[in-house]
Amino acid sequence: MNTKFKISRLIIVGIRKNYITTFHEGVNIIYGDSDTGKSTILELINYTLGSKNIDLADEINTSCHYVSSEFTVNDKVYTFKRDIFNKNNPIEVYPCLFEDCGNFYPDKFNPTSAPSNNGLDYISDFLLEILNFPKLKIKTSPSKANSQFQKVSFRNVFKYCYLDQDSVGSKSLLENNNWAKSTIIKETFKYITNTLDSSISE
Fold first, then answer.
1. 135-181: per-residue pLDDT in tens?
2. Which end of the chain has fewer CB atoms within 10 angstroms, the N or the C?
3. Looking at 130, 154, 173, which one is the last position of a domain?
4. Number of structural domains in the chain
């Protein structure tokens, strides 16, 4: 799984102007006073990648239309666009820079929160595909021969890339109080590091 996944920009499209955060190669440090939007930047990135919910500041609620994030995945550029007011609306994905989106018709995918009765694939499956991650299912009870299987999603993988401020130091970080979720989280780590036991997956 030799993959490069880099965020280039976060664009909050506003009524009067756009709010743009640019990221550079290497470590990027977001700093500032309390309640100035540092966490919101990360939450919006996560939201464009399909997370279920986001808490929006009043300024965003009253002055913004939607949010876009621009990524480079294995040398290909993608722009993800998502409605910030209706979390169940499809996520639009463009094969270009944000400024060029008007020249392309987007592919549309369901976010994690959306029902699957509209004929669209989920954004998770698309992300795993462009990241060259194989799609597979893992036993929820690895020691049981008749265990049910659960599909590994991008959200499972992304848990090892993104921690919000409420999760850091939390005793429930690895969902130890929920054996099914805890198993998937632990086995996903093996999946990422290519050490997963093939006998518990399909």
1. 877 776 666 766 677 788 888 888 878 777 666 666 666 666 666 67
2. C
3. 130
4. 2
Q: In which domain, by residue range, is 180 found?
A: 137-200
3-state secondary structure of 22: strand
Distance CA 170, CA 69 (A): 28
pLDDT, tens digit, for every residue of 91-122? 999 999 999 999 999 999 998 766 666 788 99
Q: Is the pLDDT of residue 3 over 70?
A: yes
